[in-house]
Design brief:
Layout lengths: L14 H4 L13 E4 L5 E5 L1 H11 L2 E6 L6 E5 L1 H17 L6 E7 L4 H16 L3 E7 L8 H15 L3 E10 L2 E8 L5
Parallel strand pairs: 1-4, 5-6
Antiparallel strand pairs: 1-2, 3-4, 6-8, 7-8
């Protein structure tokens, strides 16, 4: 008569939850370095021996550094480990600074007041921390006078110079001249 002992912990740990980590029976190395749940080194041993120790404590054996020689495995509660990793990722995402790019379009026949209005919009965007993409559009025969486009780009820069740094200078691309302005870094 055969007797089977089944360890059942928090349901099945599937590949979706594992996020590319080798867990318990899926560790296929000959030798692994084992770290206990409290951080102490248990030494180098076979995965079967390490799994017996982990099951004895009611925890999982998780490979945390597969590229090390020998690979490092830790005896931990896998559910708690996944929760902590998700928490770290969420915190890192919260601290990210997302910079959006706002676009302002100009033409060669733009009037002085109109360029001042667009420059004030650009200043507001730059103060908010956004980048500004300035596009000077050329229509029809205006392509013969691209130097006028450079003049408009310079005039626009002079109106926004206290808030911006030129990240990408004005460059002709097809029928458009594109320039990118970035906000100035604040001095601490």
């Amino acid at each position: 008569m055969l007797v089977f002992t089944i360890f059942w912990r928090c349901g099945n740990i599937n590949a979706k939850e594992a996020k590319g980590l080798s867990i318990n029976d899926s560790i296929r190395e000959k030798e692994i370095r084992v770290v206990d749940s409290d951080g102490s080194q248990l030494g180098i041993m076979s995965p079967a021996d390490a799994l017996k120790i982990a099951e004895g404590k009611g925890l999982d054996l998780v490979m945390i550094a597969p590229k090390a020689q020998p690979p490092v495995c830790k005896i931990i509660d896998f559910g708690k480990y996944c929760y902590e990793q998700a928490k770290k990722e969420k915190e890192a995402k919260k601290n990210q600074n997302i910079v959006s790019v706002k676009e302002i379009q100009l033409t060669l026949k733009i009037d002085t007041h109109d360029i001042q209005t667009k420059a004030s919009h650009a200043n507001r965007f730059l103060q908010a921390g956004d980048k500004v993409k300035v596009v000077v559009k050329f229509k029809g025969r205006e392509m013969a006078h691209t130097e006028l486009g450079y003049d408009i780009a310079k005039r626009f820069c002079s109106l926004t110079e206290e808030n911006c740094v030129i990240e990408k200078p004005a460059k002709l691309e097809g029928r458009n001249m594109i320039m990118v302005l970035a906000p100035k870094k604040e001095k601490k």
